[in-house]
Amino acid sequence: MQTPRDIVATFSIVGFDPETQELGIAVQSKFVAVGAVVPWAKAGVGAVATQSHANTSYGPEGLHLMAAGNTAQQTLDQLIAGDEGREKRQVGIVDAQGRTATFTGSECFDWAGGLTGHHYAAQGNILVSEATVQAMGRTFEQTEGCLAERLLAALDAGQAAGGDSRGKQSAALLVVRERGGYGGYNDRAVDLRVEDHPEPIKELIRVYDIHSLYFADPATAKVAAIDEAIYAEIVDALTKLGYLDDGNSGEDAVYEAFTAFIQTENFENRQRPRGQVDRAVLEYLKQQADRT
C-alpha cells in the first residue's frame, strides 16, 4: 500500500511542567517544515499537536476550548465530534493543569497510536512500531531538567526506538510560558524549527543548545568571580580575537573589550557586573579564541 504524500507521518509529545507552568511540544516528521503544521500552544491554556491528515483548525480551536475552561479530554471530544474526517486524524493535548488526552483515528496508517502519562501525551503514525511512543513516554518520565530538555530527550529516544518508518526530514520544539518570549512581550520561550535536514532531531538539539546559551534565564547562570587566573584567560582570549592589542592589559581596557565582545555576540542577557563572569560566556569566549 502506498502512503499518500500529504499525510503528516509524525511522532510527537506534548508536555507540562507544574513548577514553571510551561507547556510544550516536540515533533519530528518525514514531512517538510512540520513546525508550521503540528504544534500549537498558549501559556496558561494548553498545547495541541495535530497530525496524520492534520486538521490545523484543531490547534486554534483546541486552545480556544481550553481557554474557556474545558479539560484536555473535553477539548479532544469536542474537536473530533465536529470533524467528519476524524478517523484520519491524530492529536495529542495537554491543558494548563497537566491533564492529557490523545486520539488516533481508525484510518491512520500503521503503526499508529498514542499513550498518556503524568503531564504528557505521546503519539505517532506510520511508525516502525509502538516502541517509539513507549520510548518517548518513558524518557519524558525519567529525564530531569527543564521542559524543553525533557521533550527533546523524549523525541530523540523515540527516533532511537524506530521513529517514522518513512524516514526523517523536519523537527520542531515549541515551549510557552507567561512573558517567556524575548523581552517578555509574548509567551514563546522556545520556538525552534529544523525545516529540512538528514538528522532533524540532532540538529534541533544543536540549535536548542545555542538558543540556551543566548537566552537562558540569568537566574540559572553559573557565575564566577574574576580571579587572577580567569582574568588572564579573558585577556588572552580577547587578544587573540583582536579586541585587545598585544600587551594592552590595563583593567579598564580589558573590561571595555570584554563588554564589546558580549555586545557583539548578543550576550547582553548573560552580562554580569564588573568582577564577575558567566561561566558559559567564558567558555564560549575561549572556544572562539581557540579557533583563531
Describe the structure.
The chain is an alpha+beta fold and 292 residues long. Helix content is 35%, strand content 24%. The protein is built from eight helices and twelve strands. Helix 3 packs antiparallel against helix 4, helix 4 packs antiparallel against helix 5 and helix 6 crosses helix 8 (279-290). The longest helix is centred in the last third of the chain and has 16 residues, at 200-215. The protein is elongated, with a radius of gyration of 22 Å. It starts with 9 loop residues before the first strand and ends with a helix.
Question: In terms of topology, how is this protein built?
Answer:
Layout: E1 10-17, E2 22-29, E3 39-42, E4 46-52, H1 58-67, H2 72-81, E5 89-95, E6 100-104, E7 113-117, E8 120-124, H3 131-142, H4 147-160, E9 170-176, E10 188-194, H5 200-215, E11 223-225, H6 228-240, H7 251-264, E12 276-278, H8 279-290
